[in-house]
Design goal:
This protein is α+β, with helices and mostly antiparallel strands and 69 residues long. It has one domain. It is 16% helix and 17% strand. It has 2 helices and 2 strands. The protein has a two-stranded antiparallel sheet with strand order 1-2. Strand 1 and strand 2 form a beta hairpin. The longest helix is centred in the N-terminal third of the chain and has 7 residues. It starts with 15 loop residues before the first helix and ends in a 19-residue tail after the last helix.
């Protein structure tokens, strides 16, 4: 588990080991979520990297009429 320090300007630095593990690049955007008193940083991926990520998903699941668009 990595620990970070909040600067006087309320900035944090993501440790190199975490950046390498998640493949975070300089200038990349992160989505910030606050849930139950915790902060989650989620890397935003370009749509081109999302291609095929649902391959093999089971599409036979029945959905409610409300969920259908």
């Amino acid at each position: 588990m990595a620990e970070v320090l909040v600067s006087s300007k309320y900035q944090v630095v993501i440790p190199a080991e975490v950046r390498k593990l998640l493949g975070i690049k300089k200038g990349q955007r992160l989505l910030l979520l606050v849930e139950n008193g915790t902060i989650k940083l989620i890397p935003c991926l370009p749509i081109t990297e999302m291609r095929g990520f649902l391959r093999g998903m089971d599409t036979t699941v029945e959905r409610d009429e409300v969920e259908r668009v």
